[in-house]
Amino acid sequence: MLRRPVWRYKGMMEPVSEFRITAVEGMRPGAHAEFPYDRELVRRFREAFPRARWREEGHWFVPGVRAARRLDRWMAEEMAAIDRHADAKGRDDFLFDPFTSAFLEPGDDDLIVRTPWSRTIVAAMRAIPWARWDHLARVWRVPYRSAAELRRRWPAIEAAAERNSPEARLARALARTPDPLARRRQADRRRGRYPVPLADPPPAEMPVATLFGVVVFEGSDGDLPTPEEAAAYPFVADEPDNFVWATFRTPEYREIRALKPGEDEPDSSQGWWPATAEEIEDARQRLARGYRRQRAREGG
Q: Which residues does residue 21 pair with via DSSP β-bridges, in sequence order?
């Protein structure tokens, strides 16, 4: 059963439920409003408070000396419209007719959805009322009152999760690269290792270009590639004893922005070379796309 919400104003220490109001004093008086995400609820909130603005801290700011009172009244009306027994009935319905999946975990208070990232999944979860993204646990949480809607959308969510699982993505990658040497290089890339020459190793903690793109080498344990491993790299195959495995990482955006292109023509005979302007720009675009995907995951 849903608990009656507790409104919290400045100075109060009582625990709060899903709805929360915090009065703000100072140069610009107003109030902060926090409530679980629901598209229709947000629409009604914007209609009731057209001057409200979203803050990066994770709450709405409503200006005005009477903002807290107005929010209190609005939230009370919204809560009155919610079925007090919705979660209890949803939990009973789910227990009576459950559906199981490797991506679904029933919790005490809600249903936990843990899937790989997918645009299809994000769109489907956002359309479920009261579903929210828990950025700390990196899972979706769906209250039991929304279990029926989750069940209706689950076939599409589960199919997208299976399609984007690491195993499925690896299988597709291997299918695209039937060459066994290319598959071996892919395996090394996933392990974060690359052969570098003992006589002329790349600079540590500085982005350089390789067959894997622009990377930053961190060090080496001194392990030598075996003849089978060396065969995957044309520049190593003839003299594997002159190369050693080195670990690498993806460069940070600031490192790419500060990197200057090499002045000479790139020489790939040793497996690494100063990055060209085109390679630097390609790495910058890849990092930018990765950051956008990361923000999308964290923001749900």
A: 33
Looking at the 3D structure of the chain, how many domains does it have?
3
Q: Are 188 and 232 in contact (CB under 8 A)?
A: yes
pTM of the model: 0.43
Q: Enter the tokens of residue 18.
A: 């899903």
* Burial of residue 254, with CB atoms counted within 10 A of its CB: 0-12 exposed, 13-18 middle, 19 or more buried: exposed
Helix (H, G, I), strand (E, B) or coil at 215: strand
**Is residue 174 in a domain?**
no
Out of 113, 138, 166, pick the residue that ends a domain. Answer: 166
Residue 10 falls inside a structural domain: no
Q: Are residues 65 and 125 in the same domain?
A: no
- Are 205 and 133 found together in one domain? no
- The three-class DSSP label of residue 1 is coil
Residue 111 structure tokens: 């249903």
291 & 184 share domain: yes
Long-range CB contact pairs, 46-53, < 8 A, 24+:
48/74, 49/74
> Could you report the per-residue pLDDT of 76-135, keeping only the tens digit for each?
777 766 655 677 788 888 888 888 899 999 988 889 999 998 889 999 998 888 888 888
Do 90 and 144 meet the contact criterion of CB atoms below 8 Å apart?
yes
Q: Which of 132-141, 147-156, 180-189, 290-299 has the lowest mean pLDDT?
A: 290-299
Rounded to whole angstroms, the Cα distance separating 107 from 98 reads: 13
Domain assignment present for 247: yes
pLDDT at 80: 62
32 and 133 in a common domain: no
Residue 192, phi-psi category: left (phi > 0), alpha (psi -120 to 50), beta (remainder)? left
SS3 assignment, position 138: coil
The two tokens of residue 266 are 């790139």
**Domain of residue 151, residue span:** 86-166
